[in-house]
Automatic annotation (TrEMBL):
InterPro entries: ICL/PEPM (IPR039556), Pyrv/PenolPyrv_kinase-like_dom (IPR015813), Pyrv_kinase-like_dom_sf (IPR040442). GO terms for molecular function: catalytic activity. It holds the Pfam family PEP_mutase. This is Phosphonomutase. Coiled coil: none annotated. Gene3D superfamilies: 6.10.250.2750, Phosphoenolpyruvate-binding domains (3.20.20.60).
């Protein structure tokens, strides 16, 4: 790991401040990385769904890992001095040892953070047993430490997102999983699927580490999440969904009435070309 990569890793850690959250408008390609950076981002993140879609796969551990890593490397290159954290879903491996090997490969892209989720695609889901998920976090931590990398390991629990168990028990369930993942070496905890302020505040108070939430329409604004003690706010695949919606509307207009109003406000060719000219 280079000293520059280590510097970016330290910066990513420093950006996780409860009450002053880092906002991650997740990207999926180099042009998007440059646009989000120009908008004022302090760090960049990928979203597995967005990357999978642009590579031609559905989300849910279905993409080819080599392609995901190649796309991550392009985003890291476009990010310049900004730290990049990558969404590796559940680790793209059947075993904890496999997760560790994939973390080593991720570090080679220049990424300095990773998301690892406890959701399990397929009939054996929805969640991995907590001991199994914690072992995968521990393998990621060990691989990063062996490489001398200050990788920010963001452990995600899908208790709320997948509506696991009795609603009355979800907060305690999520907190118990969070504590297990922190004990295994995670640096932060991601709990998507939570938008009501009372639950967000309860999580922030109960999880002894930076709390990451997924935001979008219907969620509290970033300043409100800051007041609740959140340290990281992610938009997930929100930007990709908005971009693809705009594409569909423009295509439907062109193939319907044959007009071009939807592309009138598009970014200019020269602007986009200059964006990717170093």
């Amino acid at each position: 790991m280079t000293s520059t990569q280590q510097d970016r890793a330290r910066l990513l850690h420093e950006l996780h401040r409860p009450g002053d959250p880092v906002l991650l408008a997740n990207v999926w390609d180099a042009a998007g990385a440059r646009l989000v950076a120009a908008a004022g981002a302090a760090a960049l993140a990928t979203a597995s769904a967005s990357v999978s879609w642009t590579l031609g796969y559905p989300d849910g551990d279905r993409a080819d890992l080599a392609e995901v890593l190649a796309q991550t490397a392009r985003i890291v290159r476009a990010a310049g001095a900004l730290p990049v954290t990558a969404d590796l879903e559940s680790g793209f491996a059947e075993t904890a040892a496999g997760v560790g090997a994939n973390i080593a490969a991720l570090l080679a892209t220049g990424a300095v953070g990773v998301n690892l989720e406890d959701g399990r695609p397929g009939p054996d889901g929805p969640l991995r047993p907590v001991e199994e998920a914690a072992a995968r976090v521990a393998a990621a931590r060990a691989a990063a430490d062996a490489a001398g990398a200050g990788l920010f390991v963001n452990a995600r629990t899908d208790v709320f997102l997948l509506a696991v168990g009795d609603p009355a028990d979800r907060l305690d369930h999520a907190v118990a999983r969070a504590r297990a993942y922190l004990a295994a070496g995670a640096d932060g905890i991601f709990v998507p699927g939570v938008t009501d302020p009372a639950t967000v505040a309860a999580l922030a108070g109960a999880v002894p580490a930076p709390l990451n939430v997924l935001a979008g329409p219907g969620a509290p604004a970033v300043p409100e999440l800051a007041k609740l003690g959140v340290a990281r706010v992610s938009l997930g695949p929100g930007l990709a969904r908005a971009a693809y919606a705009a594409l569909r509307l423009a295509a439907e207009e062109a193939y319907g009435p044959g007009t071009y109003g939807r592309i009138a406000d598009g970014l200019g060719y020269q602007e986009l070309n200059a964006l990717l000219t170093d």
